[in-house]
Amino acid sequence: MRVLKQIPEVSFLKFLRHSVSILRNPLPFHNSNFLLHGNSFRLKIGFRKSVIFTRDAELLSYVLQKNQKNYTKSPIQTRDLAKYIGKGLLTAEGEKWQKQRKLIQPAFHKSQLALLLDTIHSIIQKELNNIVTDKPSDVFPVFNDLAFQVVVKSLFSSEIKEDDIKKLQHATEITQQMLVKELRQPYLGWWFKVSGKIKFHIDLIDESRAILRRLVNERKQSASKYNDLLDMLLDARYEDGEAMEEAQLLDEILILFAAGHETTSNALTFTCELLARNPEAQNKILEEVHKVKNESSDIMHWLKNSNYTKIVIEEAMRLYPPAYFIDRINKEDDQFNGFELPRGSNLLFSVYEIHRHPDFWDKPESFVPERFLDENIKFSKNYYPFGAGQRMCIGNNFAMYEMILAIMTVVEQYEILKKKTPIQIKPLITLKPFEAILEFKARK
Which of 60, 6, 55, 61 is nearest to 30 (CA)? Predict the structure, then answer.
């Protein structure tokens, strides 16, 4: 009988000793353990609780694709995140998720997204006017506002008031900050409840639901058609011919806010940070922008032919993946490469580490967009900017269209002055940039 290998264990005491630094940035702690123990280790986070951290790309491919039926998302999403944004595509599981995915998928087909391109492009042009020129400034707030505006107005066209947008954005962002505290300080869970902090944030989301309910009802009563995402969601029908119930529709919209703006704003900021340190890449993008715009005024033509801009963004998401962890729990006992995975094992895959693993990537810490000219790398089991398998991000095409147009517009309108200092990060629910201080100069 073959003896199964044991996954190396990191003690609860070590976890507590590093709790302050983990709260600030857990990635160095994880990296040190990967270097010490190999591609996987078990971290004790309580006397009876543990998490298996892994950067094993083979295992992630196995879990997301080959044996995905045996794995479900962890309570981090199905319970902790769901209490704020409801049971939609991101947080639902099983038959409910399958039913919702089948219903919503057509709204994100490329042919449908083509109807939104003019809206997305005009928002990008307007929001990028807020970039400060001729002095250093933090560019993240500009991209954060841009990405939220794109999501909101792709849903609601031009009928939503700026005051409502600000309230929705504020609620979305601070509830995610609260969730980070809950996840990284589980030993304070009792205090978050007793102090009313959790209730305060849930009340904020309830206020957001009230705003969305009003907007949805106004649309239902209107005879106008906008060909936006809300129209598509309202027109969508299940197999029995029924439309989404209002509560479910609001959950899906909240999830689009949460998942659809922060990851994009992070990726855009990191891309500009990398362009500041690689001015030759800026020049190549500028040449490409001039070329595609001289060829056609059609936005879809620009998107299909901005190949260098696209691979720059893909390389930025390799180095700084916005969704830098993927979590799963197995329903039944499993084995992989000689390791036993008892039922209920909590697996946390570090996409950040997989994207920089020296066993696969040549010059893993370097910015080399040209590596993505090889389609085999782009679709390999070592690259997960949008996840993989059945649960791959439904909005991946939407996000790529938005990011390509945004980076094209930035580089066409501004030169990002050279910067040499290291890029700083702030890992929260997503991998966020920290103090992305850049200097822009308007092009003549």
Answer: 55
